[in-house]
Amino acid sequence: VDMNLPDGNGLDLISEIKNVNPNTQVIVLTGFATIDTAVQATQKGAYHFLTKPFNVEELMSLLDKALAHKTLEQENKQLRNELGTRYQFN
Question: Which of 3, 41, 44, 74 has its CB 3.0 to 4.6 Å from that of 30, i.e. a possible disulfide?
Fold first, then answer.
């Protein structure tokens, strides 16, 4: 997601994405970076914030980390569900 979009604001788009699917890992790429916008993006659920121009290797590494993070979250949720099903306090 970029912060400055032709038809809107990147912060609003992050909120919309997270409302549709809270597990989506959003990475912000922008040429208009400030500490304030980075903090706001993170508070709205962005996984990471990169400034333009960016290093392609850094972006690829970040994508790998975001995918690994999402996989761990999914595994954690699945294990919690299994534990809840297996060990109920009835």
Answer: 3
